[in-house]
Amino acid sequence: MAISNELFKGTLQTIILNLLSENDRMYGYEITQKVKSITQGELLLKEGALYPALHKLEAAGLLETSTEVVDNRLRKYYALSQDGKAEVVNKLQEARDFIQNLQLLLNLKPSY
Amino acid sequence: MAISNELFKGTLQTIILNLLSENDRMYGYEITQKVKSITQGELLLKEGALYPALHKLEAAGLLETSTEVVDNRLRKYYALSQDGKAEVVNKLQEARDFIQNLQLLLNLKPSY
DNA sequence: TTTACATACATAGTATTCTTATGTATGTAA
DNA sequence: TTACATACATAAGAATACTATGTATGTAAA
Fold first, then answer.
1. Residue A1's pLDDT is what?
2. B16 CA from C24 C1′ (Å)
3. In a domain, B75, yes or no
4. Which nt has its C1' nearest the CA of A27?
5. Residues 36-55 of B with CB under 8 A from A
6. Mean pLDDT by groups of 10 residues along chain B of 112 residues
7. Is residue B64 a contact partner of residue B78, using CB atoms and an 8 Å limit?
8. Is residue A16 part of a domain?
């Protein structure tokens, strides 16, 4: 998933779900580019991590898909299901708690 | 490591190194209790995660050990080596960047 | 007194996650 | 025709943490 960064392990599902909560629908490659641009290239989301994660979220009923052909290339769009919309809220709260606890454990004041 | 919290994966080494940068020396069980108290019980560090991590950090030359018997029980104290002291600085900077990027990706403002 | 819990270490087997490598396929720029 | 970008996917392997188990001592409760 990253440039020598083990830290993101476990955060991928939350990242995907949150991006989809802001964008209605996105396709895989679009997600990789979005993550890259948001982090200014610091986090590179690999296909080997992304696609299995998307399939797993779909299998869990959190995502729904629709396939389109654009410019003669296949695109598989993902969108939050109703369950997915509810789950984003939980995942984001967990992420807040996680960051809070990590900052406590590492003596890091929030950077602002 | 956690109560239904996958997010901490990859952060354990940094947490250990940082605790040892504040405490000169600590033993394993003490570390588990410190983590528990700092996070108010939200993060429970399991032995199956802690001890292999300590052994790995020692093998990497970042930690040095000294064994003592206290109250008829064995204690294996860990302390940062010179390399370890240098590495904490790097790890903490990586953690800051990680938190920064994660907050960007999740639209989380720093909580203060 | 024996059961449970806390202290203190350790490891084997398993599950999960991510990386690396590879594969298919189209389009564009050098 | 080579390289790169777009777009999907999976298999093999590495890394990390969890569960379960084991050893051993001390204390409190039932």
1. 64
2. 45
3. yes
4. D7
5. 38-39, 42-43
6. 76 97 97 95 94 97 96 95 96 95 89 50
7. yes
8. yes
Query: What digits encode the pLDDT tens for the residues A58-93?
Result: 999 999 999 999 999 999 999 999 999 999 999 999
Q: Which residue of A has its CA nearest to B10?
A: A7
Q: What residues does B65 pair with on adjacent strands?
A: B78
**Domain residue limits at B68:** 6-106
- Domain containing A68 — which CATH number? 1.10.10.10
Enter the tokens of residue B96: 């800051």
Q: Give the amino acid at B27.
A: Y
Q: For B6, which DSSP code?
A: G
Alpha-carbon dihedral sign for residues B37, B40, B46, B52: negative
From A62, A65, A77, select the one nearest A14 (Cα to Cα).
Answer: A62
The residue ranges of DSSP E strands in chain B, in sequence order, are 26-27, 63-70, 73-80
* SS3 category, A31: helix
Q: Kindly state the tokens that stand for B64.
A: 């040095």
